[in-house]
Amino acid sequence: MASPNNDENNNEMVVTPWEVKGKVDYERLIREFGTQPLTPELLAKLETYTNKLHLQIERRIFFSHRDVDTVLKLYEQGIKFVLYTGRGPSGPVHIGHLIPWIFTRHLQEKFKTRLYFQMTDDEKFLIDDQRTLADTQKWSYENALDLIAVGFKPEDTFIIYDSQDMDLLYDITLEVAKRITYSTARSTFGFQDSTNIGWVYWPAIQAAPCFIHKKLTGENVPALIPAAIDQDPYWRVTRDIAQKLGYYKPAQIHCRFLPGLGAGGKMSASMPETSIFTIDPPDVVKKKIWNAFTGGKGTAAEQRKLGADPTVCSIFQYYFFLFEESNEKLAERERKCRSGETLCGECKKDIAEKLNQFLEAHRERREKAKDTIEQYHVKRK
Ligand code: TRP
């Protein structure tokens, strides 16, 4: 896929909505994007609403935000918020996609609030020369099943399929588009002369669900967007114009990328051998895990003697992100790795089992979602 930045260079960190590469330095992103770290005060406040901080907050998988403090203050004053997130349906869903969705479901439960979810079949069609709209529409349906399998409540979840539901968004996109200059869009997204004009208008479409709640219900409340930090450029331009249109600025809470199973780099559908898809059968999962990059040594003897390095291990990240909820057990696993007591094969075998159990249950719920999917469609409400 051609990025509008045409950025062909080396191993430098690149984080844009279309491309994530190099070693991601999250502290640097906070500085460069101008977002806020999660402070102890903010976490304490969040905890009063959620009983216990979600694992993904506690481990700083969600690590940065904009205006979550404002949103919580308004919430205290009786002004609720809605959640908004989305997915570019370009292929099957992998575990990395589920991470922010699991957290979003937690917020939906704890704050008893609506979720608007945008399936951007139009975006994925526009940015990829080779793709047909029929293809991204097919993936919209498939990916919605995965979303529903995460456990969202039908009465509070509104899926917007862009190419079907644009009539609902269209007037909002116009209001937004009119107030963003080409110069701002070009410098934010790196558009080139060769960028197609659909792509140039497209940011207005990702902005629109931030504001749709008012149109549907008459209530003017802020949107809170849990999403990976690569989506941030969209929110920057949206925040700049929100108040001019009479809305609250949308707030964000940003997560890290789940690393792929290779040496460095995020899990990416374009590298299927280093990604675990929800539709991967057990033997495929085992094989991918078996081939995963770890921090182990060349031989077992050497590793017993010198220990391994969990900080570079892709398998350890799986435990950290999702599969070891107990901090004590995680610390114990880390210790045994460093000391050479555990060899990589053991960790791999464990995680493959955990993953396959998780995926089996997910796929059962995913199958059931085929009967309920219509209840989630924004137009069915
Ligand atoms: N642009 C996102 C993607 O490519 C999809 C998306 C649309 C989204 N709206 C969103 C993601 C809101 C997070 C939050 O995946």
Topology:
Blueprint lengths: L13 E3 L2 E3 L4 H8 L2 E2 L2 H11 L4 H4 L3 E5 L1 H9 L5 E6 L7 H17 L3 E5 L1 H7 L5 H17 L7 E5 H17 L3 H8 L7 H11 L4 H6 L5 E6 L3 H11 L8 E5 L26 H9 L9 H7 L7 H10 L3 H13 L4 H29 L9
Parallel strand pairs: 5-6, 5-8, 6-7, 8-9
Antiparallel strand pairs: 1-2, 3-4, 4-9
Helix pairs in contact: 6-7, 7-17, 8-10, 9-12, 10-12, 13-17, 15-17
This protein binds tryptophan.
Tryptophan binds next to β5 and β8.
Notes on the structure:
The strands form 2 sheets. This protein has a 7-stranded mixed beta sheet, with helices on both faces. The protein has a two-stranded antiparallel sheet with strand order 1-2. With 381 residues, the chain is α/β, with parallel strands linked by helices. The chain folds into 2 domains: 236 residues, 3-Layer(aba) Sandwich (Rossmann fold); 96 residues, Tyrosyl-Transfer RNA Synthetase (Orthogonal Bundle), CATH 1.10.240. Helix 6 packs across helix 7, helix 8 packs across helix 10 and helix 9 runs antiparallel to helix 12. The longest helix has 29 residues. About 1% of the residues have low confidence. It is 51% helix and 10% strand. The chain is globular, with a radius of gyration of 21 Å. Bound molecules: tryptophan (TRP). The site of tryptophan has 13 residues, from strand 5 and strand 8. Tryptophan binds next to strand 5 and strand 8.
